[in-house]
Design brief:
Length: 117
């Protein structure tokens, strides 16, 4: 949905096909029940994924889901701010961008060379 909403001004045939696919999915799942339930593990799980260079300006898309038990408590999908040179770099950029949203600016990643510690 986030990607399709960025294609409103100049949609192509592929964009229309993706929209039809989303609408069919929504129609088929409209009676499904959303379950949000914490289990006894009290485990927070964070999933982040990136799609490399899918926008016309060659920027990537990042999605993230944060779960506690059964069901997402936070979900987000955004276009990356910077261009990536590879799918690995897109994944790392995605983790960096989403971790700032999840943990806040005071908890940024601090990666050090093991020799300098």
């Amino acid at each position: 949905i986030a990607f399709l909403s960025s294609r409103v001004k100049e949609p192509n045939v592929g964009d229309w096909n993706k929209l039809i696919r989303v609408l069919r999915f929504l129609k088929c799942t409209r009676d499904d029940v959303l379950t949000l339930e914490a289990d006894n593990s009290q485990t927070l799980v964070w999933y982040v994924d990136a799609a490399f260079a899918i926008h016309e300006d060659m920027k990537s898309q990042t999605g993230a889901i944060f779960t506690l038990g059964k069901g997402a408590i936070i979900s987000d999908s955004t276009k990356q701010k910077n261009n990536s040179r590879s799918s690995t770099e897109a994944e790392l950029n995605g983790v960096d961008e989403k971790s700032a949203k999840l943990f806040g600016p005071k908890h940024s990643w601090n990666i050090k060379d093991s020799k300098s510690s």
